[in-house]
Structures are given as C-alpha cells and as structure tokens.
C-alpha cells in the first residue's frame, strides 16, 4: 500500500469509527475502490488494526473519566464500602458489556474475515440497520441518564454490539440503538459507546497484530499500517469532541439518511457490475 492510500484510509477510519455509519463498511468500500483485495487476510488485518488509533483518541479525550472509573473499580475490589459508587458500578457494566463481542468475535473469526467481507453484506447491513436506528431514535423515551446505566443495560448492548461484526451495521450504531431501546438518552449512549469501544477494539487489534503479523508484512506493509493508525488517531480525536456536542442537540436522522444513500448506491454499483462484491 502506498502512503497516500494509507493516509486516506486513516482519515476514513478516524471520521467513521464513532459515527453510526460503519467504519469497517466504509473502509471495505474504499479499499475495494482503491484496488485492494478486500478478502485478503492482510487487508482484513489492516482494517482492524488501524482502529486502535481511534481507541487511543478516546482514551486521551476521556482520560480523566477513565482514570476515575479505574480508580473506583480497583478501590471497590479491595474495599466493600466503596462498591456503592456510580464509577465502580459503571466499570463493571463496561467490563460485562464487552464480553459478548469478544466471545462471538473469536468463535466466528474466520467467517468475519472472509464471507462477511462481501460488499453485498455491507450494502444490505447499511440499509437494514438504518431501520433499526430510525425505530430506536423515534420511539426511545430517553428518560434514563448516564448515572442510571447498569450491567444489565450493557450486557444487552454488548449482545446487540455483536451484530456489528457484520460490516455495514456499525459498532457505534448498534450500541447507540440498543442503548436508546433501553431508555437511555443520546449523550449517555454515545459516551457509553466510546467506553465500550476501548476493550473491544483494543483486543481485536492485539489479536490481529499477533496472528496476522506476517500477512500484514507481506501484503499491506507495516509502514502504511502505522501511518494510517496515526492519522486515524488525529481525526478521531476531533470527531469525538464534535459528536458529543452534536448528539446533545440533534437526533440521528442525518446519519440514517446518509446510510441509506450509501447503501442504495452500493447496491446499484454491485447490481450493474460496476464493481464486484469481493
């Protein structure tokens, strides 16, 4: 991969990782248009690895919150009197909510990296999940706030998050929709989506680095991978700050419409043979 392509893909990852539009779906489409074999194990690993740039942006942006949550969790492990705090309960909620996607991701790793890389899956998922997002956005009560989050909420959200292993669904879109269905407000579910991304995407990155190191070296190359990761970090940091302000005053309509347009366009391109599915 040349460096200009790496920079472009890093920008796409940074913009789309936390927006409910599917970063993996967008990267898969972009990689295909740039001429890369999207079902190649090295390309698949590259797509997963550069997400850690966005994760690092989240960690740095929320560093004070994360430090408080971790401190409360550690304190609660050794002192039962400190287990009633919101931060302690929130930490366990994040941990529990991260378990389902780790299990499903490992069990179906091969299918995720091969069969589900088809652009038909991306197109259908973009369109189909838009309906779920619309229903969640339209009928959510939003009566519950961040301090009301429980492990039961995050377990449900974590299970729904597993659907995001299908490119086009969107991890953030899945977590936000599930959170809204549980009655949480948009800011609460958006922030929770950020926190749930940290263990999920970090684990996915480490797994790909360890298991596909040689494949990345032989195909994409590690220099482009590192460059794309750094670029995604910078762009994602800006997006995190913007998204929190945006959802405080707006619904998800703009994202839903965008998903439908991209999904429909992709269907047309595939149906007419303009591009192939893999």
Q: Any overview of this molecule?
A:
- With 278 residues, the protein is mainly alpha-helical.
- The protein has one domain.
- The protein has 14 helices and no strands.
- It has helices at residues 3-16, 23-33, 41-49, 51-61, 63-78, 86-107, 109-113, 119-139, 151-161, 171-181, 186-211, 213-218, 222-247, 253-271.
- Helix 4 (51-61) packs across helix 11 and helix 6 runs parallel beside helix 9.
- The model has no long low-confidence stretch (mean pLDDT 91).
Concise account of the structure shown:
This protein is mostly helical and 278 residues long. It has one domain.
* Secondary structure tally: strands: 0
Proportion of residues in extended strands: under 5%
- As a whole number of angstroms, the C-alpha radius of gyration is 18 Å
The string of secondary-structure elements, in order, is: HHHHHHHHHHHHHH
Overall morphology: globular
The assigned structural class equals mainly alpha
Which spans have pLDDT < 50 for at least 5 consecutive residues?
Answer: none
Largest sheet: none
Total separate domains: 1
- The average pLDDT value, as a whole number, equals 91
Helix count from the secondary structure assignment: 14
């Amino acid at each position: 991969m040349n460096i200009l392509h790496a920079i472009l893909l890093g920008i796409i990852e940074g913009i789309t990782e936390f927006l409910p539009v599917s970063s993996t779906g967008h990267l898969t489409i972009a990689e295909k248009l740039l001429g890369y074999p999207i079902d190649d194990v090295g390309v698949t690993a590259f797509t997963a690895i550069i997400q850690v740039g966005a994760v690092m942006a989240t960690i740095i942006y929320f560093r004070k919150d994360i430090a408080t949550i971790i401190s409360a969790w550690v304190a609660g492990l050794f002192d039962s009197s400190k287990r009633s705090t919101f931060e302690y309960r929130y930490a366990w909620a994040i941990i529990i909510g991260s378990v389902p996607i780790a299990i499903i991701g490992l069990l179906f790793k091969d299918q995720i990296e091969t069969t589900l890389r088809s652009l038909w899956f991306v197109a259908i998922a973009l369109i189909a999940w838009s309906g779920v997002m619309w229903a969640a956005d339209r009928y959510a009560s939003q009566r519950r706030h961040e301090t009301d989050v429980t492990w039961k909420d995050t377990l449900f959200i974590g299970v729904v998050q597993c659907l995001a292993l299908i490119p086009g669904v969107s991890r953030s879109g899945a977590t936000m929709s599930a959170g809204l269905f549980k009655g949480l407000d948009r800011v609460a579910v958006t922030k929770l989506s950020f926190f749930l991304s940290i263990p999920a995407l970090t684990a996915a990155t480490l797994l790909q680095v360890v298991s596909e190191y040689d494949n990345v070296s032989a195909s994409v190359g590690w220099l482009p991978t590192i460059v794309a990761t750094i670029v995604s970090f910078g762009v994602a940091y800006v997006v995190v700050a913007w998204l929190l302000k945006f959802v405080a005053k707006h619904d998800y309509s703009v994202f839903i419409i965008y998903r439908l347009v991209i999904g429909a366009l992709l269907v047309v391109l595939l149906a007419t043979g303009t591009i192939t599915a893999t």
